[in-house]
Design brief:
The complex is a heterodimer of chains A (219) and B (298). Chain A has one domain. Chain A has nine helices and no strands. In chain A, α1 runs antiparallel to α2 and α2 packs antiparallel against α4. Chain A is globular. Chain B is of the alpha/beta class and 298 residues long. Chain B contains eleven helices and 14 strands. Chain B has a six-stranded mixed sheet, sandwiched between helices. In chain B, strands 12-13-11-14 form a four-stranded antiparallel sheet, with helices on one face. The longest helix of chain B has 16 residues. Classes of the chains: A mainly alpha (219), B alpha/beta (298). The interface between A and B is medium-sized, with 17 and 23 residues.
């Protein structure tokens, strides 16, 4: 959020007479940062949370209650969704109040938000389950999250990067989530559809991997 | 039975626990106590064999779910959500059963009411274990599993824990606990299963175990030395020295009478102590080993 304010004011300079530039850059950062937050919440936040609970054997203790593995997975996804919605709402409010952006909220952006949560919750669950040591899992989460944030068009357009990095960007799910949110929140035509499909496929695969590898009891 | 990579962790462990009883699985470290109790808790699948708890098979997921609703579990090194308070953690655990909980009442029972608003992460290991005991009771379970409930506790905490266990027993709860403390099993349990190298090597009430494997009573002649030993040796092959103490196992009072008469004849004045066998003697008799304070068999 602070990032959003800083970036918004540097690039947008709200005091300048050129209101169009302000709106443009703010409307570039708003969806990009929202997508990046969803990503870091899953890949870093959920990874840390789950692997600590695994290390301390809290999950094992929970598995001795009637709580099922599926319920635990859904509970985590739900809490990530609430977090994403809250963050999204705050970002939107800031964007509207401070930078005067005009935003479209439609089925695409809501669906993208939710699919993004699924996708990155899947990554977090998989990391926590597959990497034994919680510190290693946290480190790996950071190693995945930060380059992805830099390469997926969160801070600058992908088209401004060297072509080799553009190829990398095209393989990263965050690229499509950020792009999809930008397209759905600011354009009336639904260029977001392709992004939505790509994010949905990524989400399906990763949430299944997460369900398979998530830490629970040993069998 | 439970196998890991072909090695049987527990094998041929067969016992039944009656409703309302305290059953202790007693054994040294590595005997398979935790493996055995975790199979009953439905968090570990047996490789072979059948396990039924409260009439349900642990192998069927429906059965396991029914068991989990009616049981409470205290693991070794209990941990919970560090950022929540003690009371919030109890409410969290109660939520898993879809019930509400009188957190204060439970904390009173465990003697830690004053910790209700402390964050779980800030508690000592000893207090965390008490919260774990409270968490095992949030669903008012019929059957309670306690895995080494007093390991690492100071004597006062151990006494508190024993009192809670006895109170639960008095309320008709069934309790299955594991321990490597012989006195704990002897003090608390209605029946004891001695677990050694993955097998139950003896099973029964403390009285039954002592009768079968305890051996007879012993008389100890304190600081009797060679004079006492020499005198008794003429009458008994079984007499032995333990430092300067002379130890005489005996079955009948008649033996003791003979021994005392011989000593009086010789004018040997010595302090005499009588010892009854304990479960420690039972374990020694069965395995040739003693269980140390830290749970090692040697």
């Amino acid at each position: 959020m602070i990032l959003f304010l800083v970036l918004g004011s540097i690039y947008g300079n709200p005091g300048s007479p050129d209101q169009a530039v302000t709106q443009n850059s703010a409307s570039y950062f708003l969806p990009g940062l929202t997508a990046a937050f969803i990503m870091t919440n899953g890949v870093i936040g959920l990874t840390n949370f789950s692997s600590e609970l695994k290390r301390d054997r809290v999950l094992r203790r929970l598995s001795a209650t009637p709580l099922t593995k599926l319920e635990w997975l859904l509970g985590n996804i739900l809490s990530q969704t609430v977090l994403a919605l809250a963050l999204g709402a705050i970002m939107l409010t800031l964007g509207i109040v401070l930078f005067n952006v005009s935003v479209l909220i439609n089925a695409y952006s809501v669906a993208l938000l939710f699919l993004g949560v699924l996708l990155f919750s899947g990554v977090g669950m998989s990391l926590a389950g597959l990497v034994k040591d919680p510190e290693a899992a946290a480190g790996l989460g950071n190693i995945i999250a930060f380059p992805m944030m830099l390469l997926s068009g969160t801070f600058w357009p992908i088209s401004s990067m060297p072509s080799s990095l553009q190829t990398v960007a095209q393989a990263l799910p965050l690229t499509y989530l950020a792009d999809g949110l930008r397209n759905s929140m600011f354009s009336a035509d639904f260029a977001a559809f392709t992004d939505l499909v790509v994010v949905a496929v990524f989400a399906m695969v990763l949430v299944l991997l997460g369900a398979k590898f998530m830490p629970w009891k040993e069998s | 039975m439970k196998r890991y990579d072909g090695v049987a962790a527990v094998d041929g462990v067969s016992f039944e626990v009656q409703k309302g009883e305290i059953f202790a699985l007693l054994g040294p470290n590595g005997a398979g106590k935790t493996t055995a109790i975790e199979m009953l808790e439905c968090i570990r699948q047996p490789t072979a064999g059948s396990v039924k708890v409260l009439g349900h098979s642990v192998a069927a997921s429906q059965g396991a779910n029914e068991i989990k609703k009616k049981t409470g579990v205290l693991p070794q090194k209990f941990s919970a959500l560090g950022r929540l308070t003690v009371a919030e953690n109890l409410e969290f655990f109660a939520g898993m059963y879809g019930t509400s909980v009188d957190a204060m009442g439970l904390l009173d029972l465990l003697g830690i009411r004053d910790k209700a608003k402390v964050r779980f992460a800030n508690l000592s290991g000893r207090l965390k274990q008490r919260v774990g005991f409270a968490a095992a009771l949030v669903n008012d379970p019929e059957l309670i599993f306690l895995d080494e409930p007093t390991t690492g506790l100071d004597p006062e905490s151990t006494r508190t824990t024993w009192k809670v266990i006895r109170d639960l027993h008095a309320k008709g709860k069934t309790i299955i606990l594991t321990t490597h403390y012989i006195d704990e099993a002897e003090q608390l349990a209605d029946r004891i299963g001695i677990l050694y190298k993955g097998k139950i090597i003896a099973l029964g009430t403390p009285v039954e175990l002592l009768g079968k494997f305890g051996g007879g009573k012993t008389a100890v002649f304190r600081k009797g030395g060679d004079a006492v030993f020499g005198t008794l040796r003429r009458f008994f092959d079984t007499v032995s020295m333990d430092g300067s103490d002379v130890v005489l196992p005996f079955d009948r009072l008649r033996d003791l009478e003979v021994a005392l008469a011989a000593l009086v004849d010789r004018g040997l004045e010595v302090e005499v102590a009588l010892r009854s066998p304990t479960i420690e003697n039972v374990f020694l008799k069965l395995t040739g080993l003693k269980i140390s304070e830290s749970g090692e068999a040697n």
